[in-house]
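Pasting as-is:
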Amino acid sequence: MARQCEVTGKKRMVGHNVSHAKNRTKRTFLPNTRVLSFMSELLGRAFKLKVSSHGLRTINHKGGLDNYVLNSKPKNLTDETLAIKKALLKKNPALLDQKLVKKEKPVKRVSARAAKKAATK
């Protein structure tokens, strides 16, 4: 898989260069991919992944490689990241039941009238 992000799945797109005279010529749009090493705290080793800048931000947002891989659905993972997930679950099967990052639900703001109405029900 040349020039494809292993996190987001972004790959080469095809489009046109359009000149001032509206002449169209084929061109490709390549994703901004880099080969980076990510450290797995649970496995204690590094994994090299080809990720785009958007994929890097996704991994950082999820709290690291382990959290991203464990909290993603298998159909959204590539073969390389799926192998990492299997290795994590093999080392610690209890991770299957719990999620490492527990995001708190946003607090619903309720007006005084709605709260009073709910209390009477």
